[in-house]
Amino acid sequence: MDRPGPPAPIECTGLSRLFDGSILAVDGIDITFAAGRTTALLGPSGCGKSTLLRLIAGLEEPTAGQVRIAGEPPAALCRQGGLSIAFQDPCLLPWLTVAKNVALGRKLARQAPDPQGVDQIINLVGLGGFQNARPASLSGGMRQRAAIARALITRPRVLLLDEPFGALDALTRRQLAQDLPPLWQDQAATTLLVTHSVDEAVMLAHRIVILSPRPARVVADIAVPLPQPRNPESPAFRRIVGEILAQLARGGEMAQSLAAQ
Ligand SMILES: Nc1ncnc2c1ncn2[C@@H]1O[C@H](COP(=O)(O)OP(=O)(O)OP(=O)(O)O)[C@@H](O)[C@H]1O
């Protein structure tokens, strides 16, 4: 499979987004995401995580500040098929087979067809034998595997994942969280993962960024120095989970005191 380029660093400078003149979702975020690393974004519901991801994807325009990916606006990378995004809803086209849905990723990115690559990635995400199945005949977990395959088929330089396992039951969620990350880590795309699960974040990410209640500001930036594969029962893992839960609680208190000033 060809690749649009090496993993790309992401730089957000003074990034803000105001909706409808009064709803400040993201407030002056300055942050850099190093090329090829996986960062989990955690924060309370409605704090602005998806808005931050959409700003980085170029799906929202900032009210102030800017996003640069490998030094260019996000649209430049999108045009080259270098950025993939996957949402909680797998968004598969119901009339297309799994193989055609995955191949669509390349077509939308204006990349040459690669039937062998499609077959390979479908096998890698654990859907071997389902190439010709349609989405309606798949389970929720299988559809999400297909959506991740479609995101990876372009070999993106940046991979943005917005709660990709959010709508799944706990067991399927844990299984996918074990099976899929080696794939995207193997590709070494710069990956941002929005999740509500602290365990999932510690399982998958090199780094965890905690955002305040809306408007989103960075309240903590935590490295996860554990080797992969990680054991969620290990004392070191539980220690980091505990630290993050404390930071999330502290983030809420900090926002309350700022609002009261
Ligand atoms: N297009 C929009 N128009 C108006 N308000 C919006 C729009 N998109 C998001 N918002 C508001 O911005 C705030 C942040 O929303 P966002 O979806 O980014 O939060 P989130 O942290 O991803 O939430 P959740 O964890 O519940 O998915 C919310 O108050 C939301 O209502």
From TrEMBL:
CDD domains: ABC_NrtD_SsuB_transporters. Residues 10-238 form the ABC transporter domain. Keywords: ATP-binding, Nucleotide-binding, Transport. One of its GO terms (molecular function) is ATP binding. It comes from the Bacteria. Belongs to the ABC transporter superfamily. This is Nitrate/sulfonate/bicarbonate ABC transporter ATP-binding protein.
